[in-house]
TrEMBL record, chain A:
Residues 10-97 form the Phosphagen kinase N-terminal domain. This is creatine kinase. GO terms for cellular component: extracellular space. PROSITE patterns: PHOSPHAGEN_KINASE, PHOSPHAGEN_KINASE_C, PHOSPHAGEN_KINASE_N. Keywords: ATP-binding, Kinase, Nucleotide-binding, Transferase.
From TrEMBL, chain B:
It holds the Pfam family ATP-gua_Ptrans. Gene3D superfamilies: ATP:guanido phosphotransferase, N-terminal domain (1.10.135.10), Glutamine synthetase/guanido kinase, catalytic domain (3.30.590.10). Its main location: mitochondrion. Residues 157-399 form the Phosphagen kinase C-terminal domain. It comes from Hippocampus comes (Tiger tail seahorse). This is Creatine kinase U-type, mitochondrial. Keywords: ATP-binding, Kinase, Membrane, Mitochondrion, Mitochondrion inner membrane, Nucleotide-binding, Transferase, Transit peptide. It is found in: Mitochondrion inner membrane. Exists as an octamer composed of four MTCK homodimers. One of its GO terms (biological process) is phosphocreatine biosynthetic process.
Length: 380, 415
């Protein structure tokens, strides 16, 4: 195990003197981290040197989000989830609906298992998108990685993506080196990601050395996009206008599997295990790491008193069309799956497909002045 | 109190951090750079060339001096508490440049940083402090306020006078690196000492995390309250971690002597008042500092100081005296004269807006203060401000009468 000098130095101070003041806090980490757990874990370190204080810093610095119960902790590497189980298992359980320490997660990226999804009414469903993240085995994660590692991840990713062909043929744009014209185009396409400003991310150290080794890859058709070294090693996005979620998911699954094969050939497959599924930086993205969603016009349904309840029962969540922490504009909502861990990719996208279809039918009923009471579904 | 810290640190405070490392180390330890090997980081998967930061678009002192060779030499070193080069330079890597000022681009995590990373810090210090060479020169400390001459300004022009500095508590890591326990200990040590101040210096402490709404409002109205740093220069260096834990403000009942605890340094000490009596401001400054130092000595602590670098603070720009003495002064005519900048330069003064660094002047009123920090004493620097501001006010008066003014010859820097 690598020596962590600073943590050894810190051990000379008592656990009580180091224990953070969480009295004003409202996040999953703060709810779980007792003085006992702190005392038990503070002397530990992952092989790469990531410690308990590194894990929790973002949650100490950010007491709470006004609308969402944030996770308040991050992983610095694959081993974090093992070494700091005593903290992370309860956090995972709270965040992922009681998921237990010995539960198994199912991965299913077989797009043929999705039923329907090609007939969402484009008069209501404006666009469809599926995203996930992937971490590359053998490298530490964005809160912890050094410049050398981050550049290694970028290099490997560029090599892998360059081999894609057909509908997946595309190009990489490094953040630090794109021309003004390229930047303008990426902004116009809504592809360009910016340096994180959210303190949830910056306090976790994910913006260090920006924009070194960060970039965006997309296919020529602009329907398949990969972010390199933002909040995770890779964020993979499949999207298109309209309501053909089936096609979006097909491309998502096929593209991911092609990419995974290439990384495996380089002896750097994706981080995955049968308990937590795909390993990502934030515990909220474990499992599938998948957010499948649509932008859908629901002006009447969204003002109906039962809207929130319907979403909850369908295991869906709403966001504004700017993404997380934005408001809806003109009755158009971003509707996506709420769950990530404990169910497969196919299952989660199916929930979105079936749920959105139902909500569009409800919207149509409300337009005609009819009641939707009989349509409210049972809890999924 | 002392508790865990009396176990951690020996009672011989002048040996300071050495006792933490353990073993039989002598007081000469700190003077021999090559012996500092106790804190080598464990993980190094990539060669230095793969880790060297991309500084091509950067314009700060660190970027100007961090060659690949120096990076390779220092990247595996760490101070005894484990602070590394990558940590010291992170702020300069993340912040390529400030539009108007050439920033320093690196910080110290503890007193030993200035030794362990001397190969980088010495050239940075030299550039920032106008050629001051820490290897060959000595910094004079002089807090004898009686030596200050003509410190009463014309109050038709000078609205307020202020002197600030910082002090670090030897044996505890600095804000970029300190643990929560260390930061809390700084607070305990300082607050305990300040409770011993008497007379015109007697006052009280307001902890940021525990002050009442009323207290907070009063501190805002008095312009005393400091907020969580938002400048990325500070946040990227890790100075805002665990906010507002162990941060607070102490001030005397007269509201003329103020101490910030655990903001950008362990302590920032400020003496101020309305009007132009810089002599009294400086007198109180020196008295207060000496009294606080005496109080912490009684409890077995001392300030970080050495004869090469003077008072040790987080940012290399604040080494030496760490002193910024300044006034808010009305110079509506002079400030429009094209020779204004040159006059300030030659007087070794700088201008800021009345909101402080990075603000603009309002209504011809400027914050005028000393440019230099290291290589001259406190008395010398405040005298520079006194002489300089008197000259500026004279210029303003002459311009009012339609008379011409002269650009003074540049004054000598290292006296």
């Amino acid at each position: 195990m690598a020596k962590n000098c600073h943590n050894d130095y810190k051990m000379k101070f008592s656990s009580d003197d180091e224990y953070p003041d969480l009295s004003q806090h409202n996040n999953h980490m703060a709810k779980v981290l007792t003085k006992d757990i702190y005392a038990k874990l503070r002397g530990k370190s992952t092989p790469s040197g990531f410690t308990l204080d590194d894990i929790i810093q973002t949650g100490v610095d950010n007491p709470g989000h006004p609308f969402i119960m944030t996770v308040g902790c991050v992983a610095g590497d694959e081993e974090s989830y093992e070494v700091f189980k005593d903290l992370l298992d309860p956090v995972i359980s709270d965040r992922h609906n009681g998921y237990g320490p010995s539960d198994k997660h199912k991965t299913d990226l077989n797009f043929e298992n999705l039923k329907g999804g090609d007939d969402l009414d484009p008069n209501y469903v404006l666009s469809s998108r599926v995203r996930t993240g992937r971490s590359i085995k053998g490298f530490t994660l964005p809160p912890h990685n050094s410049r050398g590692e981050r550049r290694g991840i970028e290099k490997l990713s560029i090599e892998a993506l360059a081999t894609l062909e057909g509908e997946f043929k595309g190009k990489y744009y490094p953040l630090n080196g794109m021309t003004d014209a390229e930047q303008e185009q990426l902004i116009a396409d809504h592809f360009l990601f910016d340096k994180p400003v959210s303190p949830l991310l910056t306090c976790a150290g994910m913006a260090r050395d920006w924009p070194d080794a960060r970039g965006i890859w997309h296919n020529d058709n602009k329907t398949f996009l990969v972010w390199v070294n933002e909040e995770d090693h890779l964020r993979v996005i499949s999207m298109q206008k309209g309501g053909n979620m089936k096609e979006v998911f097909r491309r998502f699954c096929v593209g991911l599997q092609k990419i995974e094969e290439i990384f495996k050939k380089h002896n750097h497959g994706f981080m995955w295990n049968e308990h937590l599924g795909y390993i990502l930086t934030c515990p909220s993205n474990l499992g599938t790491g998948l957010r499948g969603g649509v932008h859908v016009k629901l002006p009447k349904l969204s003002t109906h008193p039962k809207f929130e309840e319907i979403l909850t029962r369908l295991r869906l969540q709403k966001r504004g069309t700017g993404g997380v922490d934005t408001a809806s504009v003109g009755g158009v909502f971003d509707i996506s799956n709420a769950d990530r861990l404990g169910s497969s990719e196919v299952y989660q996208v199916q929930l979105v497909v079936d749920g959105v279809k139902l909500m569009v039918e409800m919207e149509k009923k409300l337009e005609k002045g009819e009641s939707i009471d009989g349509m409210v579904p049972a809890q999924k | 109190m002392a508790s865990s810290f009396s176990r951690v640190l020996s009672s011989k405070r002048n040996v300071g951090i050495l006792s933490v490392v353990g073993g039989s180390l002598t007081a000469g330890f700190l003077l021999h750079r090559q012996h500092v090997n106790a804190g080598a980081p464990g993980r190094r998967l990539y060669p230095a060339s793969a880790e060297y930061p991309d500084l091509r678009k950067h314009n700060n002192c660190m970027a100007s001096h961090l060659t690949p060779a120096i990076y390779a030499k220092l990247c595996d070193k760490a101070t005894p508490s484990g602070y590394t080069l990558d940590q010291a330079i992170q702020t300069g890597v993340d912040n390529p440049g400030h539009p108007f000022i050439k920033t320093v681009g690196m910080v110290a995590g503890d007193e030993e940083s200035y030794q362990v990373f001397a190969d980088l810090l010495d050239p940075v210090i030299k550039e920032r402090h106008n050629g001051y060479d820490p290897q060959t020169m000595k910094h004079p400390t002089d807090l004898d306020a009686s030596k200050l001459q003509s410190g009463h300004f014309d109050e038709r022009y000078v609205l307020s006078s202020r002197v600030r500095t910082g002090r670090s508590i030897r044996g505890l890591s600095l804000p970029p690196a300190c643990t929560r326990a260390e930061r809390r200990e700084v607070e305990r040590v300082v607050v305990d000492a300040l409770a011993g101040l008497k007379g015109d210096l007697a006052g009280r402490y307001y902890s940021l995390s525990q002050m009442t709404d009323q207290e907070q409002q009063q501190l805002i109205d008095d312009h005393f309250l400091f907020d969580k740093p938002v400048s990325p220069l500070l946040t990227c260096a890790g100075m805002a971690r665990d906010w507002p834990d162990a941060r607070g403000i102490w001030h005397n009942n007269d509201k003329t002597f103020l101490i910030w605890v655990n903001e950008e340094d362990h302590t920032r000490v400020i003496s101020m008042e309305k009007g132009g009596n810089m002599k009294r401001v400086f007198d109180r400054f020196c008295r207060g500092l000496k009294e606080v130092e005496h109080l912490i000595h009684e409890r077995g602590w001392e300030f970080m100081w050495n004869e090469r670098l003077g008072y040790i603070l987080t940012c290399p720009s604040n080494l030496g005296t760490g002193l910024r003495a300044g006034v808010h002064v009305k110079l509506p005519l002079l400030s429009k004269d094209p020779r204004f900048s040159k006059i300030l330069d030659n007087l070794r003064l700088q201008k800021r807006g009345t909101g402080g660094v990075d603000t603009a002047a309002v209504g011809g009123t400027f914050d005028i203060s000393n440019l230099d920090r290291l290589g001259q004493s406190e008395v010398q620097l405040v005298q520079t401000v006194v002489d300089g501001v008197n000259y500026l006010v004279e210029c303003e008066k002459r311009l009012e009468k339609g008379q011409d003014i002269k650009v003074p010859s540049p004054i000598k820097q290292f006296k």
